[in-house]
Design goal:
With 371 residues, the chain is of the alpha/beta class. The protein is built from 15 helices and 13 strands. Helix 7 links the parallel strand 3 and strand 4. Helix 5 packs parallel to helix 12, helix 8 runs parallel beside helix 9 and helix 14 crosses helix 15.
């Protein structure tokens, strides 16, 4: 046996020793899965399909090349906070904090709110990171099923809040993976009920650029609501920048658990550049909304396909055999998301990201052939 083989044998024999230091619940978990998209038309992750023009690429490249990468991020981050506050029309008396995508902000909420016996609540099916980040922090997560047509079950939400008095209720507005923009009056009653029992609400508006409503114009009425957004759907998924708005005192407490320098100078400058060209991204969002409408109509005309109403840059569709259709589309170079096993309510459902006109035509053709 060679020395390298001996070394591997020794390492493997010690596996049980180091595993005792890894939490059992972590060992039983599955890591967040990212599909291999090499060579595919990528319509699985709700990304903005439009890139920057060559002129804007050149301009951004020059700005990034001039950054002092040898220094920690400085006051430029505060410039970005102010620019985002203005862009989002943040109310007076509120503050804003930044995260390395919304995922980090969700984690920071879990860390800050991890008091003994804390419980988190969210409608399901929903964004998986609400439950995952709670579990990793040792917080009990309670998922309240949506109705069969993916609306909020108001009675069940109210009963869960009254019985469990959760520390945090997450409400995605619109929801992922369904694209649903829930009834505003129902949302408000849930927000009030959660506030009356002393808990927090996190309103997740990741898909706000594609929706016809926002909670930002109502947030000033409440002292217990945090509103979270991301620049990923805005058009900067690769930049990884999220932000959260809330009352100053509340943001100050959450901000205490944020790692120092969590936003790189590259994140920061890219975000500032995008905000300076917000009109370009607004035009892209308008085109995506238009494509969503045309795609929805085309899908609804297909036999055996049910399309659910969406206010995001994705469409949830139910078909006779989602797995067969997913695999068929994949062999034709079209990558979408098979969510049929995420929750019983999503039986035989695929989630389709709205792409460019060309990508959408390719997706439709592949879907028709794969039905």
């Amino acid at each position: 046996m060679s020395a390298s083989q001996n070394s591997n044998t020794d390492a493997n024999s010690q596996s049980a020793e180091w595993r005792q230091h890894i939490r059992q619940d972590v060992q039983s978990m599955h890591a967040y899965a990212i599909q291999n998209s090499s060579g595919m038309v990528k319509l699985d992750a709700m990304e903005n399909p439009f890139g920057l023009s060559p002129e804007l690429q050149t301009e951004l490249g020059q700005r990034l090349g001039a950054l002092a990468l040898n220094r920690y991020p400085g006051d430029r981050v505060n410039v970005l906070r102010q620019a985002l506050a203005q862009y989002a029309q943040m109310p007076e008396g509120f503050d804003i904090m930044l995260g390395n995508g919304s995922d980090e902000l969700i984690t920071l909420v879990s860390v800050a709110c991890d008091v003994p016996g804390a419980k988190f609540v969210a409608p399901v099916p929903g964004f998986v990171m609400y439950a995952m980040s709670a579990q990793l922090q040792g917080i009990e997560f309670l998922g309240v099923p949506l109705t069969a047509n993916f609306e909020l079950d108001e009675a069940a939400m109210m009963a869960t809040i009254a019985q469990h008095k959760p520390a945090v209720v997450y409400l995605a507005y619109p929801n992922n993976p369904t694209g649903t923009l829930w009834n505003a009056d129902v949302i408000e009653r849930i927000v009030v009920a959660q506030g009356q029992q002393g808990g927090l609400v996190v309103m997740d508006e990741a898909y706000q650029p594609f929706a016809n409503q926002t909670y930002m114009d109502r947030i000033a009425k409440h002292g217990h609501v945090l509103l979270m957004r991301t620049l990923s759907k805005f058009g900067l998924a690769g930049v990884r920048l999220g932000y959260m708005v809330g009352p100053k005192a509340l943001i100050a407490e959450i901000d205490k658990v944020r790692p120092p320098y969590n936003i790189s100078v590259l994140n920061c400058e890219c975000a500032l550049f995008a905000l300076e060209h917000a009109d370009v991204f607004a035009e892209q969002a308008a085109q995506i909304r238009q494509e969503r409408q045309m795609l929805s109509q085309a899908l609804a005309a297909l036999p055996g396909v049910q399309v659910f109403s969406s206010q995001a840059n994705m469409l949830l569709v139910r078909m006779p055999d989602a797995t067969k259709c997913f695999e068929g589309m994949k062999t034709k170079g079209i990558l979408v998301k098979n969510v049929s096993k995420m929750h019983t309510l999503l039986h035989n459902c695929l989630r389709l990201t709205v792409g460019t006109p060309t990508e959408n035509a390719q997706m439709l053709a592949a879907l028709k052939e794969s039905l």
